[in-house]
User: Fold this.
Amino acid sequence: RNGPRNHAQRSAENTFPCLTRDRKIKYSAFRLDEFRLKCFISNQFMKQYSYFHINFKHKTMKKIILSASVLFLMSCAELQQVVNQLPQGTSGIGNEQIAQGLREALNMGIEKQVDKLALENGFFRNELVKILLPEELQKVDKTLRDVGLSSLADEGLRIINRAAEDAVGEATPIFVDAVKGITFNDARQILLGNDNAATQYLQQTTKTQLYNKFNPIIKKSFQKVAADQIWSNIINKYNSLPLTNDVNPDLTDYTTNEALEGVYTMIAIEEKEIRTKVSSRTTDLLKKVFALQD
Assistant:
């Protein structure tokens, strides 16, 4: 009753009450065809929309998958590039092998740098390690220069450094033995530390031992180069001056500590060279170990 045809007939009767029955039927058929056409168009539109929507989603998904694939491949390529830049052949290095590499670097510091200190003027002409007068004797130096004894003051400073140079030359085997006996509890941490981490560790663990062995050699060198006589003369001259307080410094102790500081300073210089310059790694062990900290 309420279908499209009856609806079209009632619409025609209500819209055109003056039409004849035949015309009303024709008008109803026209309205029915119009209704069917609208339904057909609507149906076709929905089909096209569904096709377009599905096709659009399919293309969008393809683009997403393609983009993700490109990003993945780029990431893989970058990762491979990073891997290629990593040091080769370092995967199986343990604490002991790293410790051996650190010892070799310290020994190289002794051979290449500390040996220079044993040469004449090795301390005196090297501003990094030159031994200056202790604070107690600086006023002695100034006073001697003020009264015209500059040459005596110069000789006093030079002879201290000369004693250190002589002592280092004789004590080199002590430094080598100290390096051989050093134990690294965490060699990898020291390797990955700062530019003088191994030298600092050497200083912390051997300074007292080295002082006890090095001090007698310094004392012997003082006698050898006549430093004890020269400084005895200097101090006597100073103490004899009016308006001065007598001084009696322990130059052997002071020079021992200053000379040890110079030794550690020169070892640290070579350690930094090995850490920062691949060309300074002259053995396979050094190349393999220090590649880990690059």
